[in-house]
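Purpose: get a first structural picture of the assembly so the mutagenesis plan has something to point at.
Setup: two entries, given in the order below. No constraints added.
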Amino acid sequence: EAGVAQSPRYKIIEKRQSVAFWCNPISGHATLYWYQQILGQGPKLLIQFQNNGVVDDSQLPKDRFSAERLKGVDSTLKIQPAKLEDSAVYLCASSPEVGDTEAFFGQGTRLTVV
Amino acid sequence: LAKTTQPISMDSYEGQEVNITCSHNNIATNDYITWYQQFPSQGPRFIIQGYKTKVTNEVASLFIPADRKSSTLSLPRVSLSDTAVYYCLVGDRYSNYQLIWGAGTKLIIKP
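Result (structure tokens, whole complex):
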């Protein structure tokens, strides 16, 4: 069974530029999560989707971050414009249903904003 | 929301049993306890989950006392490849967005 796929693995951009990350969850998984992990810290949930609907986005900085999951399958997370403090690893995870606390994570995208 | 407290780091040696304790004094009735493992440059990986008493799988055991205010992850006979960060999470399993990730415990296994 293929795992959660994310791309790109690494990205370096200048502040005020925009960037997008892509995630393809495990086939059949209804729930998809985007996390931000700053070096030395645990992951912080940005947004959770159930199929193509948003379950929670309370910690998503909506003035600069946006995410979509069209057709309830793959998802993109966008940052526009990026700030230096956005430098982090962006992790995508999926689970079969909302009640499944066993989430399967991708390898993440390491973003460096200079 | 239940907050967890874990040691920042631990050292052990190959072949030893390692126990990592997590404190969660304000755990709620519906909360489950979940542990994840994270290697450098990888996403976290689910290890084990429990509600009370003891849970065991092929990787680890989870011990939860009757008051559920703490839990202990036990890794038997560790190897160098068990060097990783271990996260203890507490939350309602039907509200995954309420899980708060702390900084975890960095476990270093020495030869």
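Chain A touches chain B through 27 residues (CB under 8 Å).
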